[in-house]
Design a protein that fits this description.
Length: 1640
């Protein structure tokens, strides 16, 4: 206390010191300071801590000003709210300030606070110091502070005053401020009256008690008089706070009894007013009570006290009687409040009450000292004292008897007592203590008010330590109402109702739980369950609701279904609803729930969360009050509940589309369809934001419903098949009409896009029972060609997959298509990424059976900061869902290849059972996962669905992709005159040895000098490696799982080398590094950043740049990094023309852009042009192997079905065939490289043909030059002028599109059914398969496609890109004829064998010579094909042609060197000599040297076959060549070959003149045979023939001689010469015919 006092005194001193000198009226400055000090002297310092000394001084000084003048006996009251400009800064605009100065009297402060509380004015601070001051006795002006010694005199009065300052909540309304002031003045007046008159009221009470002996009418019982005397004296002895007294007279009038006050007789609050009010007669019942001769009236007043306690005033009435008649004549009335002693004293010591208690005990009849007597006393002692005063023994006796009898019961008991005057009904309730709480009390209050007829109720509860609680309710009527008569109240029924209301929540729960769970749940268990709910829950929810909630929680499972919800409406048609969410295991994040609810257009107005205790798992209940946008019916609520569940279960999404549930009455699956189409719109580049699409549907809900109806009409399997088309037409017609009336142009475009996409959809899994393998993935199979908004190129088929967890797209450019599925990281435009890859896959797949396809999926639930393992796990699950969605709408097939549609999928397209997938970025190890999904669906492809799985070819172990790409590398090295398998060469690379392509590639030669490489982690530099040592170390890394460049033994690095982290700030340069990377001589820096060093590696002057990594590192100079679309490598990317490597090998994909390849091929490698193909050429072995695996598994599946093979045997067989398959694949890669080499050699002279062919492909819609970066017509013309052709990368692309175009044409023809091509189909498979299961090859479901692929690869790789195009234009023959003629020619001359022999000369002869020889062979094939078409017709049959001509042709071909004469022989010998001199074996050189004249063999064979008489092939051949030499045909052929072929027409003229020469020679041979004598030698027959037509022959010879002598030959001269020879045929035939000569 001392510390607090000192602190307080210190604070007072600071306050006084803070004040400025102040003089208020006559109050001196020193007095003000003294008053301020006295003001705070007794205030605890803690109450002042929130104020500064300045503020405290200002407040005290403000009070001093008010107190400066106060009339004696008057009150100074001020209620103000300081404006912003008054007072200290912290007080400005603050609380309302009440300042009072008045005489210090008892009960004043409490009464004032009581009044403010009744007005619900929040009190913040209240100070009430008592200060004694001296005031002027006349004016009331304060003079000074009074000391204890000072006394009043004539001029000054000592005033003991209460200075009260109260701060309440801010009030600015002037009227309200005035009301507060008036009410406080009234309270002060009442307190003053009561305290001033209290002695007089005590005196009056004692006087009345003394007079009762002599002034009471006769007939009043003595005991009653005695009770009255005792009571009045007891009250006056301090047991009653007297607040008012008045005397009343009772008179009778015609209107009733009238009770009016006696003038000038009143004290305290009942002092008479100046104005007299007229009195109304008493109500009849009250009048009867007034006339009743009962001496005492003990009751409650209608008015609440304004003094001391806020309770209804206790009413003590003592009646007056006419001493003669005994009639009641009036009443002495006391108003006040019983003192606390009246409530704590024993009932047996309080007058009146003690007699009632004794009477009750006596009438109960219990023996004194008995247990029941003691219980009766307990009941009376605890009974409300107000009731004991007012109630009669008759009222109390049933209470005592009942409570004693039922003291062990736990059901509520109710006792009513109606006030005799009708002012209230007192209801005493006994109930189990543990049942009592606020909610129970409020429920009971409602019951009592409703049944008693009141309008308000007050209560007093007595809980104590007993098991029984006693609650007294006082029900009062309204201002104009009346309470029900007690006789009209069914007490038993009311008690029953109160009992129900008084039931504890736990009791109610026991009943509700048994109703919910049945009799199997015992009461004890039910009561235990009741305690799991917290009190806050119990206060807001009924027990029945709790039982239902508990059942819902018990239905949850921690893993499969950890949450649920329940939605109810407040009332039918109400705009409020209640949503409960139940969660097991973990709480619900409100940050997740609130946005979800907002997406449905729901506003959360209230939210309550409860955690349930003592359950096996943590459980939570969330209770939301929702405001709806408008009234909804139960059906809409059910849709809403289902939709919220779907969002919480991640089957749907939280976005603006959800508002369609209430706005359009759509279910969440229907909305998912609209959402999926909207997502697809964004993926195809729609200009409309998602919010705009949502808005279009919100504002056109009728159209939204029609969209859904149209979709259902088209795909709902419940629609009868016979009615579907009509329903779809009707639905789409109504939809179109509805869109026509849409006002907004943007909305019109959006809604029409929806309609277009629905019309372009062929299949969906929307109506399957478990779409997407229960993952909620919606799949839509679309025709992009029918959607104008889709960007080019448009795939033939596209499946869009949508779900809250994953989105993806799968594109196919044909029914038989393959391509990888990648894990994309591009949320908003993964389709753009996939489309670009699908386009690339088209050309990549030109080598294999399927056309291009590609898929990609985006995982929507992976956080940006997710650990790698977690991200991979989620991606794996998304991959499964994506594949399952694809399979949902894919046809299945049986072993015979017959397709069947999936269940509950309505198909608007033809059978489509072929779906295969492959690994790609992010899914390299997912093949077994995909095959697992395939197996679950019992898909016909089984584990052929995804190649490369555990039961497939291990690409890395085979090294197949690298080995295939190495064929390109070897070819490039051969073209620069180097054998990379025997000669050391320098190399830089992209990748590391743990990677498949890079690792395998860098082991394929023992002579690789890898001077530098990099991946995403490290940079490897070995300036001058030892090839053998380095290769051995690289092999060690390759065989070490998870190795990096950091694992390379640094001791094995050459001087100046090192391994550096890409995270390093800089890397020091050694002289050796400078030299190996050929850094510019003018660069003097001593270090490079990692990015700079990588760029130096990419630009190093080396023999080979080997790409085995991921990323795009080289772009064209006319491209930007943004064009490339590989942001991660923007910092290290270089320009193609600056790349100095001689060769680039693309084992990995996308290392260069296509433009970069073209630029590098034209101007890289120091400006001379580098050697490069394309990635899809170089690394085609991977996709080729995968496709062969798929087709092998399809074939072997038939063997398994026929029990010819077990699954285990199949797996072993696949492993055993690994090397055979690798050999077939590598052969394909070699063939494509040879074909490109041949095409490059002729690219300049055939550029105009390439232009024609590109135009045709464009016209057919198969090629987009701009997309494929092929030169435009204008650029082609420029190249022609410069003498340039297409580059290798361009030719590779054109070759791919040639195969794509011809494949579709070939499949549409019947040529593939020709048994001649069965051998090609067989050759596709390894020999062991051909031997064991050759019969199954014929029945392979993809036999035709396999055959077409084999045919066209052989055709295009051999005869060239434009073979079919040129021959079709020259002959007009269909593709079927061209193909058969080509393969017939190859077979007749055994071309493929010769080609193999030439290719076997790799690194023996020059690459250029090999190309030259191959072109000679393919030239023969082209000429022979043309001859076969011209002579056998467009309906030729290859099998028949070969059968009839091959044997004879081969015989003649073997004899050709001996058969040729003159110029032909000289040319042959010269050519053979040149070839052998360059290293070509003599047998091959001889065969190649005869090829320019080998086409003649077909003419010879044809002559032999056409001869009516048997002839010797050797003789006919000798005749052919001898006549040719004699007549100059050999010269003509040589001259014809020399004709220009600069355009299409020149080429056609050249071919035509050449055909004419051969035709003429053939006809003349026939003529010689017909017109000369058999049995002669060849020379003799020619001589005889010449004699028969000497003149004609001389003329022809002269013409030919003249042309040769002139030395210049053009088409005109050659045409004349050929015509002269042709004349021999017609003239001689005519003359012989006229002469009738016939030589035999």
């Amino acid at each position: 206390m001392r510390e607090n006092s000192n602190a307080s005194q210190d604070l007072v001193d600071h306050v006084v010191a803070a004040g400025k000198p102040l003089r208020v009226n006559a109050v001196s400055e020193s007095t003000v300071a003294t008053l301020v000090a006295a003001y705070y002297a007794r205030v605890p310092s803690a109450d002042l801590a929130h104020r500064t000394p300045d503020e405290l001084y200002w407040l005290a000084a403000h009070h001093v000003r008010l107190a400066a003048t106060r009339p004696l006996g008057g009150d100074a009251v001020e209620v103000t709210t300081p404006p912003a400009q008054d007072g200290p800064p912290s007080l400005r605009g603050g609380n309302t300030l009440i300042t009072i100065v008045t005489d210090d009297v008892a009960m004043l402060f409490d009464s004032l606070i009581m009044e403010l509380t009744a007005q619900q004015r929040g009190v913040h601070v209240a100070l009430h110091p008592q200060i004694s001051v001296l005031r002027d006795s006349v004016t009331g002006v304060m003079k000074s502070v009074a000391t204890q010694r000072e006394a009043s005199d004539d001029r000054r009065i000592v005033c003991h005053e209460a200075w009260i300052q109260i701060e309440i909540e801010r009030e600015t309304n002037p009227h309200h401020l005035k009301t507060i002031e008036h009410s406080l003045r009234r309270v002060i007046t009442d307190v003053r009256k009561a305290t001033t008159d209290e002695p007089l009221m005590l005196q009056e009470a004692r006087r009345l008690a003394a007079e009762l002996d002599v002034r009471v009418a006769p007939g009043i019982p003595e005991a009653e008089i005695s009770e009255a005397k005792e009571l009045l004296n007891w009250l006056a002895d301090g047991n009653f706070t007297f607040l008012g007294y008045r005397q009343y007279e009772l008179t009778s009038t015609a209107a009733g009894e009238l009770l009016h006050p006696v003038p000038s007789v009143g004290l305290g609050v009942l002092r008479p007013n100046q104005e007299q009010k007229s009195r109304a007669p008493l109500p009849k019942a009250v009048g009867e009570q007034a006339r009743d001769r009962k001496l005492l009236v003990l009751t409650k007043s209608n008015s609440k006290s304004t003094v001391h306690r806020p309770e209804y005033l206790d009413y003590i009435g003592v009646k007056q009687f006419d001493l003669t008649t005994g009639a009641v004549t009036g009443e002495h009335r006391f108003l006040g409040l019983y003192a606390s002693s009246a409530y704590s004293e024993s009932v047996f010591r309080i007058p009146v009450i003690r007699h009632k208690a004794a009477a009750v005990l006596e009438q109960c009849g219990f023996s004194a000292g008995s247990h029941n007597a003691a219980m009766t006393i307990d009941v009376l002692q605890s009974y409300p004292r107000d009731e004991l005063f007012q109630a009669t023994v008759t009222d109390l006796l049933p209470v005592a008897q009942t409570m004693v009898a039922t003291s062990r019961w736990h059901r509520p008991r109710l006792f009513l007592r109606r006030d005799p005057y009708g002012r209230f009904v007192s209801c005493i309730l006994y109930m189990p203590r543990d049942h009592y709480n606020t909610a129970v009390r409020e429920r009971i209050s409602d019951v009592l008010v409703n049944h008693v007829g009141g309008s308000s109720v007050e209560f007093t509860a007595r809980l104590g330590e007993q098991r029984t609680a006693q609650v007294r309710f006082v029900v009062r009527p309204g201002p104009n109402g009346a309470l029900n008569d007690q006789a009209d109240i069914d007490t038993d029924q009311l008690e029953e109702l109160v009992g129900r209301a008084a039931q504890s929540w736990q009791d109610e729960f026991v009943i509700a739980a048994r109703d919910e769970y049945g009799d199997t749940l015992g009461a004890v268990d039910a009561r235990k369950l009741a305690h799991v709910f917290p009190l806050a829950y119990q206060a807001e929810n009924t027990a029945s609701t709790a039982a239902c909630d508990l059942r819902r929680i018990e239905n949850l499972t921690p893993t499969d279904g950890p949450w649920s919800l329940h939605l109810t409406q407040h009332a039918m048609g109400a705009v409020k609803a209640r949503l409960k969410i139940y969660s097991l295991g973990s709480p619900v994040e409100l940050s997740d729930v609130l946005p979800m609810l907002a997406s449905f257009g729901l506003d959360v107005t209230e939210e309550r969360a409860y955690e349930l205790s003592d359950l096996a798992d943590a459980a939570f209940v969330y209770d939301f009050t929702l405001r709806l946008s408008g009234p909804v019916d139960r059906d809409h609520l059910n849709l809403l509940e289902a939709a919220i569940v779907a969002v919480r279960n991640e089957l749907s999404e939280a976005d603006g589309f959800n508002r369609l549930v209430l706005q359009a009455g759509l279910s969440w699956p229907q909305i998912s369809v609209l959402r999926a189409y909207a997502k697809y719109m964004r993926q195809i580049g729609s200009p409309f934001a998602p919010e705009s699409i949502e808005d279009a549907l919100h504002r056109n809900t009728g159209v939204a419903r029609l969209l859904v109806a149209g979709f259902a009409a088209k795909f709902d399997p419940a629609v009868p098949a016979g009615e579907r088309l009509a329903r779809v037409d009707e639905a789409m017609s109504r939809l179109s009409d509805a869109i026509d009336v849409v006002d907004s142009l943007d909305h019109d475009r959006i809604l029409r896009s929806y309609a277009t996409m629905i019309e372009a959809t062929d299949r969906t899994n929307h109506f399957k029972e478990q779409p997407g393998s229960a993952g909620g993935c919606l799949a839509l199979k679309l025709r992009p060609t029918a959607i104008p908004d889709t960007p080019a190129p448009r795939p033939r088929f596209e499946v869009f997959v949508h779900s809250p967890r994953v989105e993806g797209v799968h594109m196919r450019f044909g029914p038989i298509a393959r391509g990888g599925l990648r894990w994309s990281d591009r949320r908003d435009d993964f389709r753009t990424e996939v489309l670009g890859l699908a386009k690339a896959q088209m050309v990549k797949n030109s080598l294999i059976v399927p056309v291009g396809a590609k898929g990609g999926f985006f995982c929507k639930k992976i956080p940006d900061a997710a650990p790698h393992a977690a991200a991979v796990a989620e991606a794996t699950e998304c991959y499964k869902l994506f594949i399952a969605a694809l399979l949902d709408i894919t046809d299945n097939a049986n072993s015979e290849g017959a397709a069947s549609h999936p269940a509950r999928v309505v198909c608007h397209d033809s059978a489509d059972p072929y779906l295969v997938v492959a690994a790609d970025k992010g899914t390299a190890s997912f093949s077994d996962i995909a095959n697992g999904v395939s197996a679950a669906y019992r898909f016909w492809l089984d584990d052929a669905f995804a190649s490369g799985g555990s039961a497939g070819f291990d690409h890395k172990k085979m090294g197949i992709t690298a080995r295939g790409a190495w064929q390109s590398v070897q070819r490039h090295f051969r073209e620069v005159g180097m054998n990379c398998q025997t000669t050391a060469f320098s190399c830089v690379g992209i990748g590391d040895m743990s990677g498949d392509v890079f690792g395998n590639g860098m082991l394929l030669s023992q002579h690789i000098k890898l001077v530098a490489a990099f991946d995403h982690r490290h940079i490897f530099i070995d300036p001058n490696p030892n090839p053998r040592v380095a290769r051995s170390e690289r092999r060690r890394l390759y065989e070490t799982r998870g190795s990096t460049w950091a694992d390379y033994d640094p001791a094995l690095l050459s001087t100046g080398g090192g391994i550096f982290s890409r995270k390093a700030k800089s890397i020091p340069l050694t002289p050796e590094m400078r030299q190996s990377l050929t850094l510019p001589t003018d660069f003097t820096g001593t270090s490079l950043t990692p990015d700079e060093l990588i760029r130096a590696i990419l630009l190093a002057e080396v023999d080979l740049l080997w790409n085995g990594g991921i990323g795009t590192y080289i772009r064209a100079s006319n491209e930007t990094d943004a064009d490339v679309g590989d942001k991660a490598n923007d910092g290290i990317r270089v320009v193609a023309r600056a790349v100095r490597a001689q060769i680039i090998g693309e084992g990995g994909n996308l290392g260069l852009t296509q433009r970069a390849r073209i630029e590098y091929a034209r101007s890289g490698c120091g400006g001379s042009g580098g050697r490069i193909n394309t990635d899809f050429i170089d690394n085609a072995a991977g996709v080729n192997t995968s496709d062969r695996e798929v087709n092998l598994k399809i074939l072997l599946a038939s063997a398994i079905d026929q029990n010819r093979l077990t699954r285990g045997q199949r797996d072993a067989l696949i492993v055993a065939m690994t090397d055979d398959v690798a050999g077939l694949v590598i052969r394909d890669n070699y063939s494509q490289n040879a074909a490109l080499a041949d095409s490059i050699a002729e690219s300049t002279i055939l550029l105009h043909v390439h232009e024609d062919w590109m135009r045709e492909l464009e016209a057919r819609g198969l090629l987009n030059r701009e997309l494929e970066f092929l030169p435009s017509t204008a650029e082609v013309l420029e190249r022609m002028e410069r003498g340039e052709g297409l580059t290798g990368p361009e030719l590779a692309t054109l070759m791919a599109y040639t195969k794509i175009a011809l494949t579709s044409d070939l499949l549409a023809s019947n040529v593939l059914d020709n048994r001649y091509f069965e051998a090609l189909t067989d050759q596709y498979f390894p020999s062991v398969v051909r031997e064991l299961y050759g019969d199954l090859i014929r029945r392979h479901p993809l036999r035709r496609e396999i055959t077409a692929t084999q045919v066209l690869n052989r055709l295009v790789d051999g005869s060239g890109i434009t073979f079919c195009h040129r021959l079709a234009e020259e002959t007009g023959a269909p593709l079927a004829a061209l193909v058969q003629a080509n393969f017939a020619s190859r077979s007749i001359f055994d071309i493929d064998t010769f080609i193999d022999q030439i290719n076997a000369l790799d690194n023996t002869v020059s690459s250029e010579l090999q190309t030259e020889m191959r072109l000679d062979l393919w030239g023969l094939v082209e000429r022979s094909s043309r001859w076969i078409i011209n002579n056998r017709g467009p309906s030729l049959d290859a099998n028949e042609t070969v059968s009839s001509m091959r044997a004879i042709a081969q015989e003649i071909l073997e004899r050709m060197p001996a058969l040729m004469h003159g110029d032909d022989l000289d040319t042959f010998r010269s050519r053979k000599r040149r070839l052998t001199q360059q290293g070509v074996p003599e047998s091959i050189a001889e065969r190649v040297a005869v090829m320019p004249r080998a086409q003649s063999i077909l003419t010879i064979v044809n002559t032999i076959l056409a001869s009516p008489r048997p002839v010797e092939p050797r003789d006919i051949a000798k005749l052919y060549f001898s006549l040719g030499d004699r007549m100059g045909f050999s010269t003509l052929v040589t001259l014809a070959e020399a004709l220009p072929r600069d355009d299409r027409w020149q080429m056609m003229a050249r071919a035509a003149i050449r055909d004419d020469i051969h035709y003429t020679q053939e006809r003349l041979v026939e003529q010689v045979l017909e017109q000369t004598t058999d049995g002669q030698s060849v020379e003799q027959r020619i001589d005889e023939w010449e004699r028969l037509g000497q003149a004609d022959i001389n003329h022809a010879a002269a013409t030919l001689t003249e042309m040769v002598v002139e030395g210049t030959t053009d088409l005109g001269r050659l045409t004349v010469a050929v015509k002269a020879l042709k004349t021999l045929v017609t003239v001689r035939r005519a003359r012989i015919s006229l002469s009738g000569a016939r030589v035999n």
